[in-house]
Design a protein that fits this description.
The protein is an all-alpha fold. Helix 1 packs antiparallel against helix 2. The chain is rod-shaped, with a radius of gyration of 25 Å. The two termini are 45 Å apart. The protein is built from 3 helices and no strands.
Length: 103
């Protein structure tokens, strides 16, 4: 999962660079009079919203593919381990109850 976080962080850095570049381009268009300041702000907001939507989609796909790869490699996912831990806790609790009853 750390690998996925590193990829996401790298993607976030790219998005921040992209955001700066988008603002720069739109500011130039506003200065040239090709776009009003209000249109510029709206355009930046729309583009950044699209980037956020795409970023979420890509992150979800990365996680999905990572989980498939883990299954193919026969590696337990963290969620699988958590389920097993809960089952073990329940079994231990039941065993303690049984031991109390037999004493």
């Amino acid at each position: 999962m750390d690998f996925i976080k590193k990829i996401a962080t790298a993607g976030l850095g790219a998005v921040l660079l992209t955001e700066e570049k988008i603002k720069e381009v739109v500011d130039d268009l506003v200065k040239k009079g090709e776009m009003s300041e209000l249109e510029g702000k709206s355009t930046v907001k729309d583009i950044l919203n699209k980037i956020d939507e795409n970023k979420k989609f890509i992150e979800d796909k990365i996680v999905e593919h990572f989980e498939v790869l883990m299954k193919k490699a026969n590696i337990a996912a963290p969620s699988d381990i958590q389920k097993l831990e809960k089952r073990i806790e329940k079994l231990e609790s039941l065993l303690k109850e049984k031991n109390k009853e037999t004493k």
